[in-house]
Amino acid sequence: MTKVRCGQVIRVTTVSSPAPLGRTAIVEFVSGSDALTYAEYMRFHATDVFGPGVRVFLANTKSYPMATETQCDIENGFTRLLVLFDALRRSPQAFLDDFQSFYRDPREVLEDVWMGEHGLMFVLFKDIKFASRFYKGSIWRHEYFERQDWVSNPHGFAKDPCDNPIDPFDGFQPARGSNTSVFSEWILSKEYIAGLKEAGILPENVDSNVRNLDIETLGDPNEFLVWTNQNPEVVAAREIPEE
To answer: With contact defined as beta carbons under 8 Å apart, do 96 and 186 qualify?
Structure first.
């Protein structure tokens, strides 16, 4: 996804297709015109960007017409990139451990996680639906039922990393830039522990008790922010449903 540009993305799916296609990535844009712009550019530059043997073309997808909930989420400022402010109150590893109790295998729903400046944690999902489900099922729900715990540090959705114009001189850097991928480190640590267990060096019950999801309160659920050019801006307000 580091080499996808031109517009906001709904979801990205990777599949293993029969020969001659091989491994395939299906990228669904919010706007069909953005998908066309990207495909037209890659029609002439795919080899330069991806290397030989890679082909980029338009294909029919199930994202049109868009699901009503996804359409509403996008209109309200939801993207694939969730930003947690003041995330240094808990370690990224602890966050991912708790996240695993929400999604059994985070690798299926997350593209990357990294820490930015000023204690910001960026959580990049593969699908807006996954970001929405996590946000509404954990953060929003936690704040709605525990209003007394509200604090001044909000949360928000940042601009989709793919929603930028093509600049062949930027080197198609990862969304995290020069920041370390906390998600990759977490996966490696899990694989290392699994290897030790398989070799009989560690007992099976070590690191097997996943904590219940306990997302700390991050802000007033009546508003959320979008992080643009390192400055937060309120982009929407929601009404809390009455019981």
So the answer is: yes
